[in-house]
Amino acid sequence: MSRVIVVGGGLAGLATAYFLGQRAEVTVLEAAPRAGGKLLTEARDGFLLEGGPDAFVTYKPAALELCRELGLELLETLPARPRSLVLDRGRLTPVPEGLMGVIPSRWLPMAMTPLLSWTGKLRMLADLWLPARRESSEESLAEFLRRRLGGEIVERLADPLLAGIYGAPADCLSSRCLFPRLLALEEKHRSLIVGVLRQPARARGPEMLGLRSGMSGLAEALQSRVNGRLKVRQRVEQVLPGQVRVGGEWIQADSVVLATPAPESARLLGPGALSEQLTGIAYQKVATVALGFHRRQVIHPLDSHGFVVPTRQAGLISACTWSSSKFPGRVPASCVLLRAYVRNPQESDEELAGAVVQELRPLLKLIGEPLLTRVFRWENPVYRVGHGELVSELDRQAPPGLFLTGSAYRGVGVPDVIEQARSTAERVRGFPASLDKLPG
Predict the structure, then answer these.
(1) Predicted confidence pLDDT, tens digits, the chain (440 residues)
(2) Which residues face 288 on adjacent strands?
(3) Which CATH number characterizes residue 135's domain?
(4) Per the count of CB atoms within 10 A, which of 129, 312, 336, 421 is most buried?
């Protein structure tokens, strides 16, 4: 049985250890006092707060399959129509129904939306006749969508919807890494709209799910399956192929999995080509600001799941989820819970919460001050143009027995990280056999 050390006890590290199961002797080392990373749920004064992701999509099956395997109680989102809004020219305007990602699949909602001018709507329809692009060079997500659907749909729909998820304006994001399915639609069908309309009907079911106990429940379930092989407050000082140094002592292993953020992985590996490539992965500081109010303090009906904000608009907030309208059981009776997202926060927690309240006040007609505030701060990877080539180079340069996994590489969502962990576990299990095939 091979010995594996997993550095990092977030979702990526815990899931990798879980998928390795009993086929390897696994030790997970986590520097923080708790495992789970961004899967952080807090119960405070009757409010259930999510510090990181509050749900996962179901069209990527990895998270749903794992939660079912672990016996976790799934939670569907509450019905809402419209489901989400866009802050457009000072007003909260419904996102048109029938969008498949950002591609329209229903004509009437797009024809009726005030988000786009008639010129913008006609430009969008040009996708039906435009030829497919033949050049192999990568486009940013904005360049790709602007070429197919026009500038208005990028600025008023795609940019706010996607920037809130991926942490950067659409002009910076890699189309190849984040939306390979859209590129495949153009290659196969020429038109994105035609490609979406020709997609087979999906089985009916929720598009997004949370957990009854909060997303920490997933981390706790994985931790319980690791069976005492997780060690917290263990700050790894250095990593070499087949060994890690903790507390000045070297621990030997057959394989080492780095499930830490890319900058931390670069620090652990020390100077070298692999570390230089890792530092090329961009990160952005973000904050989520949870705000609890009495229902009577919020005049807005909160009849949606929240709103997103175009990056071209000045202000702190990039999006705001109305958590109490999205999931049941998140608040005390007669209360509501809001969760705002801020990119590149500079203020202290108290200043940031106050500034977010002031920005939300005219939009939601807030009265008075919140009952509860809580600020969570993170650093998230940003998949810029060229990210795919960078990750491929990392794979080529990683020495035998060293494996990289996590949100920095092949997907930032919960299902993406879980699928990468499964793949990493398979590669770790096959590592000794793969050595036999190396030349020489």
Answers:
(1) 689 999 999 999 999 999 998 778 899 999 999 999 999 999 999 999 999 999 999 989 999 999 999 999 999 999 988 789 999 888 999 998 877 777 888 888 888 899 899 999 999 999 999 998 888 888 898 899 999 999 998 888 888 888 777 767 788 888 888 888 888 888 889 999 898 888 776 666 788 999 999 999 999 999 999 877 899 999 999 999 889 999 899 999 999 999 999 999 999 999 998 999 999 999 999 999 999 999 999 999 999 999 999 888 778 899 999 999 999 999 999 999 999 999 889 899 999 999 999 999 999 999 999 999 999 999 999 999 989 999 999 999 999 999 999 999 999 999 999 999 999 999 998 876 443 333 33
(2) 341, 376
(3) 1.10.3110.10
(4) 421
The SS3 call for residue 172 is coil
Distance, CA of 322 to CA of 143 (rounded, Å): 31
Amino acid 50 reads E
Tokens for 9?
A: 């006890």
Number of domains in the chain: 3
Reported as type and span, the H/E element at residue 193 is: helix 192-197
Judge if 267 and 391 occupy the same domain: yes
List CB contacts of 256: < 8 A, sequence separation 6 or more.
4, 5, 6, 7, 239, 241, 242, 243, 244, 401, 402, 403
CATH number of the domain encompassing residue 241: 3.50.50.60
Q: Which tokens sit at 208?
A: 């997004």
Same domain, 134 and 109: yes
Instruction: Tell me the two tokens of residue 48.
Output: 């259930």
List CB contacts of 227: < 8 A, sequence separation 6 or more: none
Task: Provide the domain limits for residue 135.
Answer: 95-197
Asked if residues 307 and 93 have their Cβ atoms less than 8 Å apart, the reply is no
- Of 344, 360, 382, the position where a domain reaches its end is 382
CA angle 234, 235, 238 (to 5 degrees): 125
pTM: 0.91
Alpha-carbon gap, residue 139 to 160, rounded angstroms: 19
Do residues 264 and 388 share a domain? yes
Q: What length does the chain have?
A: 440
